């Protein structure tokens, strides 16, 4: 299969883990890693792997637009605000892993089909990627009036960026629950757990619904679990959904693949895995083959 060339901006932990994931892609050819710290572990690893390395940020890459058609931005919201117009002028398809949210919110198995031609798509948050698919599944069956998620992660997997953006996490995830998950109203909470040994990422999804249909809800949740597992093998339900009156509660656990992050950092792993999945689906669209869409997307249905 022909491959689409791609580059990563950001040589930190997220960018480095994404690099290892893209190495396994059937339709993306990683060509370059772009950073600002020549001594960063990410750039050293990229250089050792034979990729083109830029140490002056996006400015050098602008001079070599031929290197990539898809660009993954794993920097910061502030940096992406500068990168986005430059990449747009270059005609690149952008997968944004930052909180900048310039483009539409995307969760691969839910709504990426609607945004394949968008020049810039946003991957929401780790909590959003773990929980919005479930909210969407419940909403398909029962019309969610209120969706609340509680994401619990190991404190060791929450770096300075995560800690500095807790407010942005709750606001952005809430918006994703509503805009992508389909809940009329949403709420998001994040808990940093200092347990030693570190815990895996866990999320509780609580939905209030208008049209309770337990069998249909279970069916759609099970289907969605399998959809997410196509690109996050460590994603799983902890038990059967709980039903009480008009309320549904779902418990999810996310174990990372261990590419660069430790296995307990499922919150970080699901972001890079979702970004890879989004990039592959965009690549398939650019190639006119769309090899992943039928497996990765549950199409919208009329209730």
Commentary on this structure:
The protein is an alpha/beta fold and 303 residues long. The chain has two domains: 4-123 and 270-296, Rossmann fold (3-Layer(aba) Sandwich); 126-262, Dihydrodipicolinate Reductase, domain 2, CATH 3.30.360. The protein is 39% helix and 23% strand. It contains eleven helices and twelve strands. It has helices at residues 13-22, 41-48, 58-62, 77-89, 108-111, 126-142, 160-164, 166-179, 214-229, 266-287, 293-296, and strands at residues 4-9, 28-34, 52-54, 70-73, 93-96, 120-122, 144-154, 185-193, 201-209, 235-237, 242-244, 247-254. The protein has a six-stranded parallel beta sheet with strand order 3-2-1-4-5-6, with helices on both faces. Strands 7, 8, 9, 10, 11 and 12 form a six-stranded mixed beta sheet that branches. α1 (13-22) crosses α10, α6 (126-142) runs parallel beside α8 and α6 packs across α10. The chain is globular, with a radius of gyration of 19 Å. Residues 291-303 have low confidence and may be disordered.
